[in-house]
Write a structure and sequence with these properties.
heterotrimer; A alpha/beta; B alpha/beta; C mainly alpha; A: Rossmann fold; 8-stranded mixed sheet; 4-stranded antiparallel sheet; 12 strands; 30% helix; C: MetI-like fold; 77% helix; globular
Chain lengths: 338, 350, 317
């Protein structure tokens, strides 16, 4: 799925976040070689929308999330937040934009400073940005903790190790909300949590989104979790985008063979559904030497000669549904020319 | 020369592969005793798979390690473990050395940490072949390559000379399966064998385990937090909560007619592909109890939506109320929740 | 071995810096070497002449370059005290020091490795506690005291070993060994304590790793797990500290050499400092610096032999 192209992008003025031709290279030691972790990825998110970014390890989804918040900034490409390209901004200009865009990480415990109390952790961004006086900040911290479903009375003076994983993730979310961001980038926010606690955090994110009008990019490897929270979903493989579309459409009729294989691989908690044999053989090729043409072709059951020579470009598969594949799984409508 | 086995060459008919009775595992720690596993009993026959399901801290991993005697020095383990009819409960480490490998083997969760990073893959297989089966160096080496080939590692001869870090995650887990299968065990513990792997690789590894089990007629204990992984691949399921078995039934019975509220809540909480997007996740409020506390109550009572006074006063026993179906609840429910509506109130949060 | 070659290349600038710093340090020592050499009654002309001869009237960097040139051609100068060439003085005494160093480390490791492994087998068990206490006890005893006690017991009381002196290895290997046993044991005592503690704590950590549980699940006996699976991954701090100790011991162990009257580098250095025997001190300091750098180089190289992952990372860089 060497998915390139921008056919799936919507009108620039509608999008809160618009990422164009994002490329992130990582040097490999001192060999002079580099790995292209993200290779020409474009996507957009409308205000109030939740985009699920899904893929397996090594697909570049986390790197994409970090490149959006400019830590580290991408090698090339544009990241437009409200029409302003963050990659062009330097120093203080970029810093001034940071409160709008907050990152929530996977490991809830290690992403909090173990020596600080919850009160200090949540207040820290407020202090850094000189928001309010001490009394005002204390009140904000309490209301934030209540908003994420923590009882300030019992948790405000605790340190991270005295809280459960789910509670720590709530503290992390409260801290991210402190500066009233417009957008949250959540990188695997629930994958370290038990299934019963996962639901609590997912519901919380939905509630907060409604309450504060947040726009969310939700990065995860778990397809069912992504489905439960997203409006649109973008599937990545080996640094490229395969498929983008409304989550219910994509899951019901995936166009890209990789999306289909991912969905087939998810085990169903129902013993009357016999487990299907693994839909994909082999493993991820080395990102140092990605396959020519479509990057997925080495494992793709539908691959043909054309996939080796020509990189597929994003094209419409249906209403708002796009995929980068020469031989998609959906029957294209007769008007499906580009 | 193969080591002498303490077990009969042919098992008498009807003797189960593994019988566990009233097994508890406690760890002495500063400031108390952690009751990781309390009073667990189950039976496993050759060629069958027992799924053990639970969340972190439920005791599922400790249970598997207890049976193999893989516990730290501060552990106590009352109860009875009979393997192929022989009581191995009180066996010393020296005696168990003959059981582990040729009789029981284990596949661990994270192949990154469970393979010795300082030793070539081939060596990690040959050392048990040479120790247990008395193979010569050359015979062990060619057997190791054959095993790597069998578990689907391409260019096995080359890979035998690799170090673990030179393999991908899926290949590493295949290698640990080859290690486990080296001495042809009759019982395989697979402790979260796919949790650290990607979903497409997970399917491959589960297929491989199932194929090997069929081929070798092994008994298998499949430990997982994921009901989806266990559902299609086990004959019976044990659901654990806070160190106790709370429900134990044949897999189909359990999913169709579960009786324990915890099982019901857990099943409802699993995010599913067949639910529409933005459907509210069912949650289990609160969190599991302190494993050092001794409380004469149902361990799930503080989080149970159906809790009554008796649940807080008296711990229910594990009863076999229907043939083959045991559960630990005073007020059992009538089956899984209907799939559309979340029945556990999302309003209550811990 | 590309890595080893590159590492060796890296040593060159390090050696320049180290030798320059030691050169600087010696030149900052209080006292005028010229006065020391000529005696307090020297005439001004003599002093000026000698200063010129030794190039002491030049600025320090210039003198350093001169000195480097001389070293490069093998001329370390000669002692003012007995006119012995510095190189010869070092060559005479280095074998004693090296022998003592190797013997001391061999004793220390021969004891520390089994003790560390056994102590880690059951943390807080009886053996572990006894070992830990003994180790702290050994650390607390100053080595001059230990030396005196050892001499009293083994040399004066039981007459098993000589109290002092030295016989060259080439002359009589057995006598040579007899003379070195007590000083080596004295030096080893403190190192044993450190090595046992280091090895024990790293072994305890290693033994909690998943791959050890896997080795146990394979049905391997304890002994094999400890030696084949746990030992090698637990030797990193041990190797690092051995490297530092080797560097230190190349400079000789003055107190021990002095007590046992061993003609080693340590005694040479200290007596030269007292005598303001400027060129000899410079020679030994360079030797010590080079020793440290080489020892650390060996430690660095040995890491890649201990851990195959390091070798692969280094192959990339």
């Amino acid at each position: 799925m060497a998915g390139i192209g921008t056919a799936h992008l919507r009108a620039p003025e509608d999008a809160l976040l618009r990422v164009e031709h994002l490329v992130v290279d990582f040097p490999v030691g001192r060999t002079g070689l580099s790995v292209q972790a993200v290779a020409d990825v474009s996507f957009d998110v409308l205000a109030g929308e939740t985009l699920g970014l899904v893929g397996e390890s090594g697909c570049g989804k986390s790197t994409t999330g970090r490149a959006v918040v400019q830590s580290p900034p991408p090698t090339s490409g544009r990241v437009l937040l409200d029409g302003v390209d963050l990659c062009e901004l330097r120093g203080e200009e970029l810093r001034a934009r940071r409160p709008d865009l907050q990152l929530i990480l996977q490991d809830p415990i290690s992403s909090l400073n173990p020596r600080r109390r919850v009160r200090e952790i949540v207040a820290q961004p407020l202090r850094t940005w000189h928001r309010g006086d001490a009394r005002g900040r204390a009140a904000t911290v309490r209301s934030l903790l209540e908003a994420v479903g923590l009882d300030p009375g019992t948790t405000i003076d605790r340190r991270p190790h005295e809280l459960s994983g789910g509670q720590c993730q709530r503290v992390g979310i409260a801290r991210a909300l402190a500066l009233e961001p417009r957008m949250l980038i959540c990188d695997e926010p629930v994958s370290a949590l038990d299934v019963s606690v996962q639901g609590q955090v997912l519901n919380l994110l939905e509630d907060l989104k409604a309450r504060y009008g947040l726009t969310i990019v939700f990065i995860a490897h778990d397809l069912a979790v992504v489905k439960s929270i997203s409006d649109r979903v973008a599937v990545m493989y080996l640094g490229k985008l395969c498929e983008v579309g409304p989550v219910d459409t994509v899951y019901a009729s995936p166009a890209h063979p990789y999306t289909d294989a991912l969905l087939q691989s998810v085990p169903v908690p129902d013993p009357t559904v016999p487990p299907r044999p693994a839909p994909l053989a082999g493993e991820l090729p080395s990102p140092l030497a990605p396959p020519s043409g479509c990057r997925f072709r080495t494992r793709c059951p539908r691959a043909q000669a054309r996939c080796e020579s020509e990189e597929p470009v994003m094209r419409a598969m249906g209403d708002g549904h796009f995929a980068a594949c020469h031989f998609p799984l959906v029957v294209l409508p007769p008007v499906a020319g580009l | 020369m193969k080591r002498a086995s303490p077990f009969p060459d042919v098992d008498p008919a009807g003797v189960p592969l593994l019988e566990v009775e009233g097994l508890s595992t406690r760890f002495r720690v500063p400031g108390g005793v952690v009751r990781a596993v309390e009073d667990v009993s189950f039976t496993l026959h050759a060629g069958r798979t027992l799924g053990i399901v639970g969340e972190s801290g439920s005791g599922k991993t400790v249970l598997a390690r207890s049976v193999m005697g893989l516990l730290p020095h501060n552990a106590d383990r009352p109860g009875t473990i009979r393997y192929r009819g022989v009581d191995i409960t009180g066996w010393s480490t020296r005696q168990l050395v003959g059981v582990r490998g040729p009789e029981m083997a284990m596949v661990f969760q994270d192949p990154m940490t469970s393979l010795n990073p300082y030793m070539r893959i081939g060596r990690q297989i040959t050392e048990s072949l040479r120790w247990h089966m008395g193979l010569t160096k050359a015979a062990a080496a060619s057997r190791a390559v054959a095993l790597l080939d069998e578990v689907g590692i391409p260019s096995a001869r080359l890979r035998a000379d690799s170090y673990p870090h030179q393999l991908s995650g899926g290949m590493r887990q295949r290698a640990t399966i080859a290690i486990a299968l080296a001495c042809s065990p009759r019982l395989l513990f697979a402790d979260e064998p796919t949790t650290a792997l990607d979903v497409t690789v997970q399917a491959q590894i589960l297929d491989l385990l199932a194929a090997e089990q069929r081929e070798r007629e092994m008994g298998m204990v499949l430990v997982s937090h994921d009901l989806g992984v266990v559902a299609g691949r086990s004959d019976d399921i044990v659901v654990m909560y806070a160190g106790r078995v709370v429900e134990h039934a044949p897999t189909r019975t359990l999913f169709a007619g579960l009786r324990m509220p915890y099982t019901q809540a857990l099943l409802a909480a699993v995010p599913r592909l067949d639910r529409p997007s933005h459907s509210r996740a069912a949650v289990i409020p609160g969190r599991p109890p302190d494993p050092t506390a001794i409380d004469p109550a149902c361990r799930f009572a503080p989080r149970c939506p159906y809790v009554q006074a008796r649940c807080q006063a008296e711990e229910p026993p594990l009863v076999e109320a229907e043939p083959g179906h045991r559960y630990r609840c005073w007020y059992p429910v009538a089956g899984p929740l209907p799939r559309s509506a979340p029945a556990v109130s999302p309003a209550r949060r811990g | 071995m590309r890595f080893v070659r590159r590492q060796l290349l890296h040593l060159v600038p390090v050696l320049f810096v180290v030798t320059f710093l030691s050169f600087l340090l010696i030149n900052l020592l209080p006292g005028d070497p010229v006065i020391t050499i000529l005696g307090p009654g020297a005439t001004q002309e003599h002093v000026t002449a000698l200063r010129k001869e030794l190039a002491l009237d030049e600025p320090i960097p210039v003198r350093y370059v001169h000195w480097l040139k001389r070293i490069a051609t093998g001329h370390l100068g000669q002692s003012y005290v007995n006119r012995q060439p510095v190189l010869e003085a070092i060559r005479q005494r280095l074998p004693t020091t090296l022998e003592l160093m190797i013997l001391a480390e061999a004793f220390a490791l021969a004891l520390a490795i089994p003790m560390g492994i056994l102590a880690a087998r059951r943390p807080n068990g009886i053996f572990d506690r006894v070992t830990t206490t003994t180790a702290f006890g050994l650390l607390a005893v100053p080595n001059f005291m230990l030396a005196v006690v050892l001499v009293y017991v083994f040399a004066l009381h039981w007459h098993l070993l000589p109290a002092e002196g030295y016989t060259a290895l080439t002359q009589n290997p057995f006598e040579n060994l007899r003379h070195l046993v007590l000083p080596a044991v004295t030096l080893a005592a403190a190192d044993v304590a450190v090595y046992v503690r280091l090895l024990r704590s790293e072994m305890v950590t290693t033994l909690q790793q998943d791959f050890i549980t896997l080795a146990r699940a394979k049905g391997l006996p304890d002994r094999r797990i400890l030696l084949r699976h746990a030992f090698r991954p637990s030797t990193f701090s041990l190797v690092t500290v051995i490297g530092l100790n080797l560097g230190r011991l190349i400079g000789g162990a003055f107190i021990v050499e002095y007590i046992f009257a061993l003609p080693g580098i340590g005694t040479l250095t200290v007596s030269s400092i007292f005598n303001r025997d400027y060129l000899v001190v410079q020679g030994t300091v360079v030797l010590i610096a080079v020793g440290y750098v080489l020892a650390n180089f060996l430690v660095d190289v040995s890491y890649s032999f201990l851990d195959p992952r390091i070798k692969d990372v280094r192959a990339l860089t």
